[in-house]
Amino acid sequence: MYRLLLVDDEPDILKNLAMYFPWEKGGFIVVGQLETGAQALEFLQQQAVDVVLCDIRMPGITGLDFAKTVKELGLPARIVFLSAYRKFEYAQEAFRYGIRDYLVKPPDFQELLECLLRIKKELDWETQQREALSPSLSLTGQIQDPILQTVTTYLKGNLEHASLQNAAKLVQLNPNYLSTYFKEKSGVSFSAYLMGLRMGKAKQLLSDPQYSVHRVSRIVGYSHVKNFTRAFRSYFGVPPNAVRKGKIIPLPKEGP
């Protein structure tokens, strides 16, 4: 099930949407019902959310302001606007911020379902791509390969400075050749495997309060914490500080 957040400043509409629409039929589960854009932004920065169904006219942070901020922060959630206003300028501005759809209240059951199914197809495809690159698929049955043994042992013990060039030098191979060899023998690219190791180690360290995000970023090979935060969010769908609150998806196994 994909995670859906409902945002509307009218409590009755929130209640009706949550209770009477069969979200499970579209492959979604409602993880929150919020009444303001500010609450929604805070929620998105703490928990993984796949889709936000959001009103466009709300007090304080409007739906448009919310969508603009989500885009600027690089948050992965897809947004669908649900509004009583048919004004073209609203829809036009909304799509500038990457909105997936603009539906008019009250939502037509079939129209909303079709919208969600389209988004679900996108999410399914992205999930398949992540799984295809996941280190959980790597090195199965290949642990006897001496080159892979040497390279993976090096990577696991040297995350701060690990690189394709250093690994290639270690096994006395051309970097491009090693990259091709690694992919052919393991079924996963060198970069994807290294990313999985780094994110796994980062998640492990972040669960310990004595490690700051800045310190963890350096340990796993990022000289700039902003780059680490961006990579972590891209990999898990939530920022690093979400780990401390236990709000993160499990890490794929990294293989032998």
Overall description:
With 256 residues, the chain is α/β, with parallel strands linked by helices. It folds into two domains: 2-132, Response regulator (Rossmann fold), CATH 3.40.50.2300; 136-245, Arc Repressor Mutant, subunit A. The chain has helices at 11-20, 37-44, 63-73, 88-96, 109-133, 146-157, 164-170, 175-186, 190-206, 213-219, 225-236; strands at 2-7, 28-34, 51-54, 78-83, 101-104. Strands 2-1-3-4-5 form a five-stranded parallel beta sheet, sandwiched between helices. The longest helix is centred in the middle third of the chain and has 25 residues, at 109-133. It is elongated and about 65 Å long. 32% of the residues are buried.
Features:
alpha/beta; 256 residues; Rossmann fold; single chain; 5-stranded parallel β-sheet; elongated; 11 helices; Arc Repressor Mutant, subunit A
List the SSEs and their pairings.
Elements: E1 2-7, H1 11-20, E2 28-34, H2 37-44, E3 51-54, H3 63-73, E4 78-83, H4 88-96, E5 101-104, H5 109-133, H6 146-157, H7 164-170, H8 175-186, H9 190-206, H10 213-219, H11 225-236
Parallel strand pairs: 1-2, 1-3, 3-4, 4-5
Helix pairs in contact: 2-3
**Uncertain regions: pLDDT < 50 for 5+ in a row?**
133-138, 250-256
User: How many separate structural domains?
Assistant: 2
The largest β sheet comes out as:
5 strands, parallel
What is the level-2 CATH architecture name of the largest domain? Answer: 3-Layer(aba) Sandwich
Number of E-state strands? 5
Concise summary:
With 256 residues, the chain is of the alpha/beta class.
